Structure to design on (381 residues):
C-alpha cells in the first residue's frame, strides 16, 4: 500500500516516516499507560454494558 | 387521533423522529425510492432526501457496519433488514461490534442505533421469511430487543428505541403489519418506555406471558376459556431485553400458574429464559409447573400451507395448553 501511494505521489518518504513515528509514540504512550494502571475492581465487571449501568 | 395499522405506525414514528432530530437517518435495501419492501419507509426519501434515506447494496453486514459508523459519528441511524432472516450475515457486526462498543471502550463510546426487521411466520413466507430468532439477539448483553404487537406499541416503542443511547433490535411481526387498525397518538404523547410490559387482560386462574403475534392468538384462546370459567391474565412483554420480570411476578403471585407462549421453535427460545427466571422467582407461589407453548423444533417454516398451519400456534393449541395448566 505504501509503494502504491508513493507511486501516485500521494505519500512521501518524509511523511511516511513522520506518520510511523507518531503512531509509534502513540502506541508507546498507550502501552505505558495500560501497564502502569492498577488492575480494575472486579466489581466493575458489569459496568458499561448499557448507558445507565 | 389518527387510525393506523402497524406498518403505518412504524412509518409515522420514523417520520416524526426524522422531523424532530436531524441526526436520525434511515438506511437499508430499497428503503428509499421503493419505500421499503413492506412500505414502512414510503415517502421518507422524498421528504428528507437521499442523504438521510439511503438505499444500500444487498449486503446486510455492510448495512450494520455503516449504521455503526454513523452512530459513532453522532448520527442516529435506523437500519432496516428486509426480513430478520436476512440479518444473519450481519450477525458478526451486530454481536461482535455493535453490542460491544460501549463495554470495550470502558464507556467512552456508544452506539445508539436501531435495526428494524420484520419477524415471524404465518404469511406463506416459507424458509427464509418466517423465522422468529429473537432469542439469538436477547442472548447478547449490550443489545436491547423490542417486539411490539399493536400499532400503538410499535410507534411508541420505536420512537423510544431511536432516542435510546444503546443499540436496539426492533422486531416487527409481519403478520400484524396490516392486521389491525387502532388510534395512535402523535408526537411526544406516543412515546412508551422500553422494558415495560402491558397487562392486556386480567384474570385469576393462569398467567399467560407472551409477545408479538402470539398476543392476539392468546387473547382468542382466553376468550374461549372464559366461556368454560377459566380466566386468563395475559401479559404482553413488548420489550424482551430488558424484560419486565416484576409485572410477571406480581401476576403469578395472584394466579399461581404461568404459561409462556412464543412463536419460535421451543428449544432455546426466549420463552425458555422467561420460564427459568419465573420458576426461580416464583417457586413458592406456584401451584403447577411453569409451562411453555411454542412451535415445533423443525429447521424452518415449511412452504406447504398444511405444514405451515401445523407449525404455527393457533387459538386451539394455546387454549389446550392453558387448560391443562389451569386443571393441574
Amino acid at each position: 500500500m505504501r509503494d502504491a501511494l508513493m507511486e501516485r505521489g500521494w505519500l512521501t518518504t518524509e511523511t511516511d516516516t513522520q506518520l510511523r513515528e507518531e503512531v509509534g509514540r502513540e502506541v508507546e504512550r498507550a502501552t505505558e499507560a495500560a501497564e502502569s494502571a492498577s488492575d480494575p475492581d472486579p466489581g466493575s465487571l458489569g459496568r458499561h454494558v448499557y448507558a445507565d449501568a | 387521533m389518527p387510525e393506523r395499522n402497524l406498518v403505518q405506525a412504524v412509518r409515522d414514528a420514523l417520520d416524526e423522529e426524522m422531523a424532530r432530530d436531524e441526526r436520525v437517518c434511515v438506511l437499508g435495501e430499497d428503503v428509499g425510492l421503493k419505500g421499503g419492501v413492506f412500505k414502512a419507509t414510503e415517502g421518507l426519501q422524498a421528504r428528507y432526501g437521499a442523504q438521510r434515506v439511503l438505499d444500500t447494496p444487498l449486503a446486510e453486514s455492510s448495512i450494520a457496519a455503516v449504521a455503526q459508523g454513523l452512530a459513532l459519528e453522532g448520527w442516529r441511524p435506523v437500519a432496516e433488514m428486509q426480513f430478520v432472516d436476512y440479518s444473519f450475515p450481519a450477525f458478526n457486526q451486530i454481536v461482535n461490534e455493535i453490542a460491544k462498543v460501549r463495554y470495550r471502550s470502558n464507556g467512552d463510546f456508544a452506539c445508539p442505533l436501531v435495526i428494524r426487521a420484520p419477524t415471524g411466520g404465518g404469511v406463506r413466507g416459507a424458509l427464509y421469511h418466517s423465522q422468529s430468532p429473537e432469542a439469538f439477539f436477547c442472548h447478547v448483553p449490550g443489545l436491547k430487543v423490542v417486539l411490539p404487537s399493536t400499532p400503538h406499541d410499535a410507534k411508541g416503542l420505536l420512537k423510544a428505541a431511536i432516542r435510546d443511547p444503546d443499540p436496539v433490535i426492533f422486531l416487527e411481526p409481519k403478520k400484524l403489519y396490516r392486521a389491525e387498525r387502532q388510534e395512535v397518538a402523535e408526537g411526544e404523547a406516543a412515546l412508551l418506555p422500553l422494558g415495560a410490559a402491558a397487562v392486556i387482560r386480567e384474570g385469576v386462574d393462569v398467567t399467560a406471558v407472551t409477545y408479538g403475534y402470539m398476543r392476539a392468538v392468546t387473547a382468542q384462546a382466553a376468550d374461549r376459556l372464559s366461556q368454560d370459567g377459566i380466566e386468563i391474565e395475559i401479559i404482553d412483554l413488548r420489550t424482551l431485553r430488558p424484560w419486565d420480570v416484576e409485572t410477571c411476578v406480581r401476576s403469578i403471585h395472584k394466579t399461581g400458574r404461568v404459561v409462556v407462549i412464543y412463536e419460535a421453535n421451543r428449544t432455546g427460545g426466549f420463552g425458555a429464559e422467561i420460564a427459568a427466571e419465573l420458576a426461580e422467582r416464583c417457586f413458592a407461589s406456584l401451584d403447577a409447573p411453569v409451562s411453555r407453548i411454542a412451535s415445533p423444533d423443525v429447521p424452518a417454516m415449511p412452504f406447504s400451507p398444511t405444514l405451515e398451519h401445523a407449525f404455527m400456534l393457533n387459538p386451539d393449541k394455546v387454549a389446550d395448553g392453558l387448560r391443562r395448566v389451569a386443571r393441574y
